[in-house]
Amino acid sequence: MAERLAAAATLRAAAPSGRFPAGRRAGPSSSAFFPSSSSSSPALRLVSLRAASSRPSQKAKSAGRGRSVRCIAAASDAAQLKAAREDIRELLNTTHCHPILVRLGWHDSGTYDKNIKDWPERGGANGSLRFDVELKHGANAGLVNALKLVQPIKDKYPSITYADLFQLASATAIEEAGGPKIPMKYGRVDVTGPEQCPPEGKLPDAGPSAPADHLRLVFYRMGLDDKEIVALSGAHTLGRSRPERSGWGKPETKYTKNGPGAPGGQSWTAEWLKFDNSYFKEIKEKRDQDLLVLPTDAALFEDPAFKVYAEKYAADEEAFFNDYAEAHAKLSSLGAKFDPAEGFSLDD
After folding, report:
1. What is the CATH number of domain 78-333?
2. Which residues are catalytic?
3. pLDDT tens digit string along 199-248?
4. Alpha carbon distances (Å) from 164 to 235, 316, 332
């Protein structure tokens, strides 16, 4: 991993500024999931060329444009998902976009409301984030770049759903960054139009006046508990916050000034493309002024119930990995409608 990170640091790719067909760049974000960062590179051109060679149908090309087009709700093909996973691994190795792909999956699933029974009104992992209306939500600032990264893969494999692709990309990014194997299941059905997108305001804020209460309000609505809140917060070991998008963090630090990807932003950890338990260690110590601590991060060691788990994860990486893998798998299925109803694994 150290060798990969050292090699990655030599790559400096500018984040794309153009539009993705399904949406436009969003406004400033204050999401506590993953405050906006960008991880894009010239390898996008290579990915696009590889995808173009598969000659997708016109229907596949237009499926993500997010206005009047409707796609057929259908389960994903397991063989195509497995092939897509290999392409995602190559994409990660080429562009080092692990943080933004994790954020893509989380923000598609994190709108779930357990108090709403009907699908898709209940939100969750249903592919709605591909549509322009949801991309414009403030918490989704910059995720147009994630869509640009995965759209060629969707075009290449038209028999997979966006909902599955987003969650596959997120879990694969964690694993490829050195994190635990996520016990994922697939077969999520996509929503068919932008009118089925959730309303804005479902995702957590980074700087609420009562951070612990706010985290519980949002995550309890999803059916997650204190242990899962703390474990999922540990994914901030990956990525950076950019003040021009989220309003949080420094424009640049010694850890981010050389990229990889577009340089700048402030990371939570020194090795921000490596998944480990350093987030909890750094938040606990608060010694490095170049590392970010949001109010919702600090709350993990200030709230007595959260602190039990935060202290545990700072001391025991294996315990963190085990709890994180379970929590990520649960988050990735929130609100989803599966076909077949029980879903399926790619590792059976």
Report:
1. 1.10.520.10
2. 107
3. 999 998 877 889 999 999 999 999 999 999 999 999 999 999 988 777 88
4. 20, 31, 9
